[in-house]
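Hi L.,

You mentioned the student needs an example of a multi-chain input paired with its predicted structure. This one should do, with 233 residues in total across all chains.
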Amino acid sequence: DTGVSQNPRHKITKRGQNVTFRCDPISEHNRLYWYRQTLGQGPEFLTYFQNEAQLEKSRLLSDRFSAERPKGSFSTLEIQRTEQGDSAMYLCASSLGDLRPGQGAVGREKLFFGSGTQLSVL
Amino acid sequence: QQPVQSPQAVILREGEDAVINCSSSKALYSVHWYRQKHGEAPVFLMILLKGGEQKGHEKISASFNEKKQQSSLYLTASQLSYSGTYFCGTETQGGSEKLVFGKGTKLTVNP
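Structure written out for the whole complex:
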């Protein structure tokens, strides 16, 4: 168990630039989540995957955000045309989710979080 | 849909007890508790499933009151290492399969 790995740890970019973050989950975990956290707040849900399928994306999330998980392994989160309001810690988490998704499926499985990518948009 | 945590902050002396509450306006399948230290990732503490069970993790335990849709985290005989921000995450019935986290409770344990 090597844990959830996120790269880069820090990213500084200028407004309007595109950025991409990578998350490598624990190898046998089929579920992968992206959360965003700002100072003094709890993690805010962005999107999640079961294997390679993106099952939900937050309705509050701008179309500038897109995520992929090709082959159900690592995942990337891309933000296009970054804005200062995008500055935050982006957290990835993985879990060994129920293979039969349904309500209550996530409740039985603990999430393992990565250390996050701190994004600063100047 | 975001659960409400209280209090927002707690300051204790080593050895004292604390209770952190997490309430939802929606019926819940489960409540998760995580602790996050400054600059680190949230770390899992425990899961409570509907049914009112109580779980324990060393001197940290929690309960889930299904009627009130409320969970409480109990920290007894606090240690310096308990300092951090505690988050509850909830999965609601009739909702999608994700955890929604509260804003957190910052716990500071002083010597």
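You could point out the following to them. Chain B touches chain A at residues 2, 29-30, 32, 34, 40-44, 47, 49, 87, 89, 91, 93-104 (CB under 8 Å). The CA atoms of residues 21 and 70 of chain B lie 7 Å apart.

Best wishes,
N.
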